[in-house]
Write a structure and sequence with these properties.
Blueprint: E1 10-13, E2 31-34, E3 41-43, H1 58-81, E4 85-90, E5 93-98, E6 105-112, E7 114-118, H2 124-129, E8 148-150, E9 153-155
Parallel strand pairs: 6-8, 7-9
Antiparallel strand pairs: 1-2, 2-3, 4-7, 5-6
Protein name: Organic hydroperoxide reductase OsmC/OhrA
Organism: Saccharopolyspora flava
InterPro entries: KH_dom-like_a/b, OsmC/Ohr_fam, OsmC/Ohrsf, OsmC_Ohr_Peroxiredoxin
Length: about 160
Amino acid sequence: MAETHGYDVSIEWTGNLGTGTDDYRTFSRSHEILAEGKAPIAASADPAFRGDRSRWNPEELLVATVAQCHMLWYLHLCANAGITVIDYEDDAHGVMTMDERGGGGQLTEVTLRPRVTVTDPATIDQANALHSKIHEVCFIARSVNFPIHHQPEAHTL
């Protein structure tokens, strides 16, 4: 039997401005994402959908999740390959495409732009190549139905 792991989160809507959802324009999309023992995440809808720009939205969180999982697996694969990484940054970008009816949309691609610092210049090519292996093992990349592109840039100090 396959091993499983469970993940429990709670969502609490904090956007009732006094009249609930009596009108599409009169309630806030603000909410909190909660999990036992963790700080709440202040969230909302994308500003294009009447959300609060100062809070995280689901689309940003999904792009961040893709980037996080990629980074964690990348560091694992580098450690196994004997590549010493001393710094990792990524400016990830997700694209949501709205459907033609205007009622919905979906993330259609994510581009990761990891900038990695390694200690040995001889490992730069291998460090860059490892990014293409992550889609085989990353839990999130294996779970989404959109392409994840990589534009890696490894260097030494």
